[in-house]
Amino acid sequence: MRFVALIALPLTMIAAQPAFAKGCIRGAAAGAVGGHMIGKGHGKLGAVAGCIAMHHHYAKQAKAQKAAQR
User: Fold this and answer.
1) How far apart (Å, rounded) are the C-alpha atoms in residues 55 and 64?
2) Which of 22, 36, 39, 50 could pair with 58 as two cysteines, CB 3.0-4.6 Å apart?
3) pLDDT at 64
4) Mean pLDDT across the chain, nearest whole number?
5) Of 59, 3, 54, whose CA–CA distance to 25 is shortest?
6) How much is the pTM?
7) What CA–CA distances, in Å, run from 10 to 4, 20, 43, 58, 61?
8) Residue 11: what pLDDT?
9) CA distance 12 to 29
10) Does residue 3 have a pLDDT over 60?
11) CA atoms of 60 and 31, how far apart (whole Å)
């Protein structure tokens, strides 16, 4: 039992960190649907790709917005 607690506690602390991935959920949902429509087993791959693409889009948009304010 002590062994489980030694593993579970650090994992719980890591998982509780805030996620700074703006747009990831929306992109993952769209990518998962697209991957599911393409073929069997591609939903997870589509979700990962969608998350990465939307995070990149929002990061680029924020950088452009910051430059426009200057």
Assistant:
1) 14
2) 22
3) 92
4) 80
5) 54
6) 0.63
7) 11, 20, 30, 31, 34
8) 67
9) 25
10) yes
11) 19
Give the total residue count for the chain. Answer: 70
**Structural contact between residues 40 and 57, judged by C-beta atoms closer than 8 angstroms:** no
Tokens of 28: 């993952």
Which among 31, 30, 54, 29 is positioned nearest to 42, based on CA atoms?
31
State both tokens at 56: 């990149």
Kindly list the domain boundaries of the chain, sorted by start residue: 42-70
Could you give the CA distance from residue 65 to residue 68 in angstroms, rounded to a whole number?
Answer: 5
Residues 57/59/60/62 CA torsion (nearest 10 deg): 120
pLDDT tens-digit profile of 15-50? 655 555 677 888 888 889 998 888 887 888 888 888
